[in-house]
Each structure stands twice: as C-alpha cells, then as structure tokens.
C-alpha cells in the first residue's frame, strides 16, 4: 500500500503505512491517503460478518498496512480491542461487542439505533482509534529503537484519550497542555489523576487558545522539535482515521442480516475525522446508503453539504456550545474528501486549499463537482442547544436511554434524513456523564456514571502549573526528556 498526498508533491515517492504513522501533514501541506482504496469482495464481507471486533479490525487494517507483518498486526488488534478496555457498557453482556448496537425503535419506517463508540477508558469515541495508536506507536518505536515525545493542547476529549492510550507505553512520553482551572471537574480529574511517569499534565495559566499557541510555537522551533523528538497525535493522523473504518463495518453487520441490505449512518462531526472513515468504508464497498453529517451551531460542514460553499470561520465566529468537541472553525480532515470529490486531482486541491488560506474558503456550487456530493452519499444538517436538549429529553422519555449532547446533535439531524426500510445508525460519540450540565438541564437528574468512575474527582492529582509562555514549556519538556 502506497500513500500519496492530497496536494500531489509526494507523487513520485513511496510511503508505507509505518512511514506516515508518526508524522502529521505531508511535506506539501496536504494529507496522506492511500494511492487507491482497497475493495472488499462479497466473499470477504460474508466472512467478516461473524468476526469478533479485534479480528475484523485486523482484516480491515491489514489492507492498509501491508508493511506490518500479519502476525504482529493481529496481536496488536487483539491486545487493543478487549472487553476489559471497552468495559464501560450500558449492558455488561454487550462488552465483548466492543461497539454494541443499541436499538431504539422504528421511526418513519426506519429502524433507528445507536452504535456505542464511547465505552472505552475516557468515555468518548476517540478511544476507538487512540487505543490502537498507542499500541502501534510503541510497536513501531521499539522496532526502530526510537522514542517520541507527544506535545498537545486540549480542552478535554482529545487530550485525555491520548493520555489513556499512551500511559505506560515504552518509548513514548506525553506532554499535554490544558487551561488551568477551565475544564470541568470530571475532565480535570480524568486527566490529572493519571500517575504514570510518562504522562505530564501541564496546566497553563490561560485559556485553551494560549495552550494551542504554545504548541504551535514549539512546533515551529524546528531545532527544538528535532532535538527533543516532538510529535503530535491530532485528528489528521491517518492511522486514527483508518482505525475508525472498522466500526462502520461492525455497525453494518449488527444492523443487517444479509449483505444485500443498505444502512445509513449519522455522524456528529467536527474535524470530519469520524465521517471521513465512513466515506472510506463506503469507497471500500460497504453498502452505505447515506452518510449524514451532523454539526452543532458551528455549521461549516453543513453549509458546504447544503450549498457547495466551504467558508472557514474566524475565532470570533466560532461559538462555544454545549457540544464542545464539535466547536471547530475549519475541518482538518475535510481535504481528504475534497480530493476524492474532485476525482483525485491534486492540482485543484492545492488551489482550493490555497484559497482557504488566502480568501477564507472556496465555492464549488457552480462546478459540476458539487453535484457529485450526492453520489458519495453525503447529506447534512445542524443542531442548536434547544434541539439537543429536546433530543436528549425525547430519547430518554421514548426509549429510556440517556444520550450525550454530541450524540443528540447526530440524532436530531438523523431524523431529518430517515428513509423507510433503511436502518439509520447514529454514532454515539460520548457518554452523558462527560457533559452533565446539559443532562441536568434536559432531564433534571444526574447522568449515569459507569462503576469505574465512582469517586474519580477525589483521587490524588498530578500536574504542573506553568505560565502561558512557550519558553517555560520548552524548559519543562527539556528537563524531562534530558536531551
Ligand atoms: C471529537 C469528537 C467529535 C467530532 O469528531 P470529528 O472526527 O472531529 O468529526 C464528536 N463528538 C465527540 C464527543 C468528540 O469527542
């Protein structure tokens, strides 16, 4: 499997899965994609239906990473996708499913279900990919005798998923910046209670943007970055995207009896990483009818799928909402889909994303390309705070099921795209306990708390407070990496 850049510069070069695993953007600023998507045969689809999650993950990942010996990859997926790791289930008997499908009911003739992706250690879907990434990083670094220091900024979900994936991993340290005293007590405790010596929580005296600016400043210091082997695990990481392809297959098998049936997926979206995996599953031949892109008030993606206009937002136009993990001003994985939409023409992708940088966006409305969005199965919609509160209340009353704010956005938009006879699977991206304030507002009661999280806020916490100053952060990192 050879990987190419969406902007074309690497066209003559060869990149394996392992080559791009630890990196971020391609040299030309584009994103990596396989030179061609592997197709799944009818026989494979039939055989895969019966596989446990870990073995399904092996089958799918091995199509994208033929440079990793099969026995090693099988061991990695079996070690990653265990009932012990994904134990925070509604129903204990379902833990072995890893991503259980919870049937809600039939609406407008369409069976409606939730695919639970948030049963992992941090109760958000990012664990699905990040846990694999932790094992892949450890494996690859050991093979090459290397080490990696991951530097990141978080306002909650991504940082904790990264820490829980990398804790205790040989060859990896994590330096995670978060705004001091600005996260919820639950989120703070989730991260700061980790006592692993390779995890460093740095509480910055500032806001999330200060944390992000420091990460950028350190990353732009190429000498420091090289000397201290600084890397990232952001959402453009290809391995994260491809690991997410697996649960689209798993959800399809759970919702259907035969491979002649089609299903739709509704995906709460921010950086377009999750739904990009759905697009890839569809390109591989999974019978997906519609991919429903659901946004909150930050509707960059909904605007594109409705109008053909992609217009990134400025910081002042990016709202802080009650589904905060979807508060984005531009969708960092979107370029991967645009590449396919334009018939994989890197020169045009380069031009369009130059327009994004220089003019703040692009307009495909008048071009023939936009008409093809439908052929790729994409539809969209957006949701507001009132919509999500209503959806949380409605699902609780009608189906006795509590959903989180992001999943509520997915459900609200899913309902606008139901088709009789076609199952609609809403991806559940987090558990309600992570966003308790809105649950209390909607239901006037406390969200359910998985057993492993009882007493979390009372555990001892380990973190370092630093001023919002890149030099001091660098000095701290240097003192721990000793280079
Ligand atoms: C990250 C996240 C999303 C958005 O996923 P993308 O891959 O960025 O589109 C949605 N919901 C939750 C809970 C998340 O943590």
Automatic annotation (TrEMBL):
It comes from the Bacteria. The modification N6-(pyridoxal phosphate)lysine is found at residue 126. The keyword Cytoplasm does not apply. Residues 96-345 form the Tryptophan synthase beta chain-like PALP domain. It holds the Pfam family Thr_synth_N. It catalyses: O-phospho-L-homoserine + H2O = L-threonine + phosphate. The keyword Amino-acid biosynthesis applies. One of its GO terms (molecular function) is pyridoxal phosphate binding. Pathway: Amino-acid biosynthesis; L-threonine biosynthesis; L-threonine from L-aspartate: step 5/5. Its EC number is 4.2.3.1. Keywords: Amino-acid biosynthesis, Lyase, Pyridoxal phosphate, Threonine biosynthesis. InterPro entries: Ser/Thr_deHydtase_PyrdxlP-BS, Thr_synth_N, Thr_synth_N_sf, Thr_synthase-like, Threonine_Synthase, TrpB-like_PALP, TrpB-like_PALP_sf. GO terms for biological process: threonine biosynthetic process. Residues 2-81 form the Threonine synthase N-terminal domain. Its cofactor is pyridoxal 5'-phosphate. Belongs to the threonine synthase family. This is Threonine synthase. It comes from Paraburkholderia humisilvae. The lineage of its organism: Bacteria, Pseudomonadati, Pseudomonadota, Betaproteobacteria, Burkholderiales. The gene is thrC.
């Amino acid at each position: 499997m050879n990987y190419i850049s969406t902007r074309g510069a690497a066209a003559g070069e060869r990149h394996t899965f392992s080559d791009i695993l630890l990196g971020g953007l391609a040299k030309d600023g584009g994103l990596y994609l396989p030179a061609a998507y592997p197709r799944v045969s009818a026989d494979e689809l039939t055989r895969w239906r019966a596989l446990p999650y870990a073995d399904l993950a092996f089958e799918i990942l091995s199509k994208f990473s033929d440079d990793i010996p099969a026995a090693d990859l099988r061991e990695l997926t079996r070690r990653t996708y265990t009932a012990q790791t994904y134990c925070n289930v509604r129903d204990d008997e379902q833990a072995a499913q890893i991503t259980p499908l919870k049937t809600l009911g039939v609406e407008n003739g369409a069976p409606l279900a939730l695919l639970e992706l948030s049963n992992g250690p941090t109760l958000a879907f990012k664990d699905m990919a990040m846990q694999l990434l932790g094992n892949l990083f450890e494996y690859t670094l050991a093979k090459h005798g290397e080490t990696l220091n991951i530097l990141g900024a978080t306002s909650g979900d991504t940082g904790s998923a990264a820490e829980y994936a990398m804790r205790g991993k040989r060859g990896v340290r994590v330096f995670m910046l978060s705004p001091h005293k600005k996260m919820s007590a639950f989120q703070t405790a989730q991260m700061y209670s980790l006592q692993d010596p390779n995890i460093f929580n740095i509480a910055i005296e500032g806001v999330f943007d200060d944390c992000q600016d420091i990460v950028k400043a350190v990353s732009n210091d190429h000498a420091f970055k090289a000397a201290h082997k600084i890397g990232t695990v952001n959402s453009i990481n290809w391995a994260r995207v491809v690991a997410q392809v697996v649960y689209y297959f798993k959800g399809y098998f759970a919702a259907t009896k035969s491979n002649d049936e089609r299903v739709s997926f509704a995906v709460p979206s921010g950086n377009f990483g999750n739904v990009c995996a759905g697009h890839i599953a569809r390109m591989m031949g999974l019978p997906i009818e519609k991919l429903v892109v659901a946004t909150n008030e930050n509707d960059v993606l909904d605007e594109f799928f409705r109008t053909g206009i992609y217009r990134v937002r400025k910081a002042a136009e990016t709202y802080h909402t009650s589904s905060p993990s979807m508060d984005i001003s531009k969708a960092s994985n979107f370029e991967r889909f645009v590449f396919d939409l334009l018939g994989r023409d890197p020169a045009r992708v380069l031009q369009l994303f130059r327009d994004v940088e220089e003019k703040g966006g692009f307009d495909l409305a008048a071009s023939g390309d936009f008409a093809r969005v439908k052929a790729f199965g994409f539809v969209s919609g957006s949701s507001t705070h009132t919509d999500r509160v209503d959806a949380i209340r409605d699902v609780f009353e009608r189906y006795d099921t509590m959903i989180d704010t992001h999943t509520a956005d997915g459900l609200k938009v899913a309902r606008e795209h139901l088709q009789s006879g076609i199952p609609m699977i809403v991806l559940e991206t987090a558990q309600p306990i992570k966003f308790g304030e809105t649950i209390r507002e909607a239901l006037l009661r406390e969200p359910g708390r998985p057993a492993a999280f009882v007493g979390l806020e009372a555990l001892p916490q380990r973190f370092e407070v630093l001023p919002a100053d890149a030099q001091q952060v660098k000095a701290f990192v240097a003192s721990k990496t000793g280079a």
